[in-house]
Write a sequence for this structure.
């Protein structure tokens, strides 16, 4: 039976207004609104038109209600810069991510969530230290942030939204933490974003308005302190200059800008010095990117899941089919997270012939 | 010709006592040094060859004034084309200079660029011969000091005699830092240094 809510979901994923979808399907705009409201069920020809225009399999529209995500409980970065259409698209990716997550967890046991609830903590620096101690990290730098999150039970997905205004978002669902990361940015930004979302997950677990500036500031301060523990920095950084900033930032796997900011906060870089450092970093292209950067982190869980499934001859296509998702949506959710494609060993070799 | 033996102050208690007589502060002088050294690090191979020294000089001169002017009687002075801070009560002038090598007992630091006639007049040098470890008794009531910083960050506050565009001797040398901050030393090398790596496990149901 046709599920009107799935029509809305697919339309939002494709960033279409009802009017735009009407134009693509040669249906009346009213018809689309009525279908989404569930006022009357569509005939087969209409479903086919909708499926074709949206690039979703017909079976997708016949499934049960999609997983609802409470938009108030979602923490978005750069929320103010985001259009409603971008936000809806990202939230509906979250909904599809939940379906993928249920599917995977039916087949695999994943690490149990092991986060602290630090919502009573008002100081992000203290919260970061508490979580580090709880996880036994001490003052040491983190070699692979995504794997740390996965080890502690965070479910990671990628956001294949090619827009700078959606960085990442996170939410709790059934006592499980979910993080969606935009992978179009530099490796350092992704690491920072993931620590920022971790900050929201532990500090704002029960808070309502996630998009307030102070919540964002807290999550940023948390990320900074979590990735660059004060004592380790103070023991290693002496009289920082542009060269030492560029060479030492790799220890903490952060961007030069984030590193300079932290040094300023820790009093190792005076206000004036910090300002001139920002200007110089900007000149060298570190404001818009990371000219000399680290390799992108990938998800270990997704790589293991996919290669296990490959070994059972289950392809991404098969996964998409059983989830009734288009392949591009599935790939979008794990894109760039799983690393290079694991391919099953070919039985025969193909050779070019002249 | 009158000559006097160079006064050399190295011990922290001697240094701090003398600096307080001069209405200066050790930590602030080292901050001036930090700014200068950091500014010089902004030079890249595409900058002019003398950029590191120029940046350092400008940063050092700016920071010297930023740290002291407005406190304890220090004001900006650029008379005779020499960029300094001046203290009328103490009759002291202080300028910034990049040098080849600071804080070495057996070497009077040499400026990395030629000093002009203004600096020579200001230090009260002139018609005297070079006498290592001794300096000709300077003429005039003003004492002219340089905050001398070398490329490693070694820093001394020194009252030199300028002749022929260079420092030929010193009346007084106050060692401030050998380039590795005195109280902290080099960042410690430890063994438990590496980043922690994680490997989440999954199990097929």
């Amino acid at each position: 039976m046709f599920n009107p809510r799935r029509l809305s979901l697919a339309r939002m994923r494709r960033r279409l207004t009802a009017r735009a979808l009407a134009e693509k399907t040669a249906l009346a705009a009213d018809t689309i609104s009525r279908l989404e409201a569930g006022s009357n069920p569509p005939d087969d020809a209409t479903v086919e038109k909708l499926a074709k225009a949206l690039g979703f399999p017909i079976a997708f529209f016949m499934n049960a209600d999609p997983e609802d995500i409470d938009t108030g409980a979602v923490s978005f970065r750069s929320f103010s810069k985001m259009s409603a259409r971008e936000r809806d698209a990202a939230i509906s990716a979250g909904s599809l991510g939940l379906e993928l997550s249920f599917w995977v967890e039916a087949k695999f046991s994943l690490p149990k969530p092991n986060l602290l609830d630090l919502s009573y903590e008002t100081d992000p620096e203290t919260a970061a230290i508490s979580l580090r101690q709880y996880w036994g990290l001490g003052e040491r730098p983190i070699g692979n942030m995504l794997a740390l999150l996965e080890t502690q039970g965070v479910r990671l997905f990628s956001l294949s939204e090619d827009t700078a205004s959606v960085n990442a978002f996170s939410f709790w669902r059934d006592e499980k933490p979910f993080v969606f990361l935009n992978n179009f940015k530099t490796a350092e930004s992704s690491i920072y974003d993931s620590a920022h979302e971790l900050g929201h997950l532990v500090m704002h677990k029960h808070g309502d308005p996630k998009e307030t500036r102070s919540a964002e500031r807290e999550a940023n301060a948390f990320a900074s302190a979590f990735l660059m523990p004060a004592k380790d920095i103070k023991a290693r950084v002496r009289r920082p200059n542009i060269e030492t900033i560029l060479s030492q930032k790799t220890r903490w796997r952060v961007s030069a800008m984030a590193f300079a900011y932290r040094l300023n906060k820790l009093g190792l870089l005076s206000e004036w010095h910090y300002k001139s450092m920002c200007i110089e970093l900007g000149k060298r292209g570190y404001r818009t990117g990371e000219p000399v950067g680290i390799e992108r982190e990938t998800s270990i869980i997704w790589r293991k899941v996919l290669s296990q499934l490959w070994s059972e001859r289950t392809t991404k296509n098969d996964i998409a089919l059983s989830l009734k998702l288009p392949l591009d949506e599935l790939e979008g959710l794990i894109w760039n997270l799983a690393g290079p494609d694991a391919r099953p060993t070919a039985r025969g070799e193909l050779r070019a012939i002249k | 010709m009158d000559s006097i033996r160079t006064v050399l102050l190295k011990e922290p208690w001697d240094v701090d006592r003398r600096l307080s007589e001069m209405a200066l502060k050790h930590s602030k002088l080292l901050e001036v040094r930090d700014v200068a050294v950091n500014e010089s690090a902004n030079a890249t191979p595409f900058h002019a060859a003398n950029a590191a020294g120029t940046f350092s000089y400008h940063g050092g001169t700016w920071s010297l004034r930023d740290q002291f002017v407005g406190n304890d009687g220090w004001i900006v002075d650029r008379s005779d084309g020499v960029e300094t801070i001046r203290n009328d009560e103490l009759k002291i002038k202080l300028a910034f200079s990049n040098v080849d090598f600071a804080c070495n007992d057996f070497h009077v630091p040499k400026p990395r660029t030629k000093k002009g006639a203004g600096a020579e007049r200001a230090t009260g040098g002139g018609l005297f011969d070079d006498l290592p470890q001794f300096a000709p008794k300077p003429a005039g009531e003003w004492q002219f000091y340089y905050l001398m910083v070398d490329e490693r960050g070694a820093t001394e506050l020194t009252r030199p005699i300028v002749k022929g565009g260079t420092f030929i001797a010193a009346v007084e040398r106050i060692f401030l830092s050998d380039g590795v901050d005195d109280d902290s030393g080099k960042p410690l090398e430890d063994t438990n240094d590496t980043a922690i790596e994680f490997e989440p496990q999954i199990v097929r149901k």
Notes: Confidence is low (pLDDT under 50) at residues 342-349 of chain A.
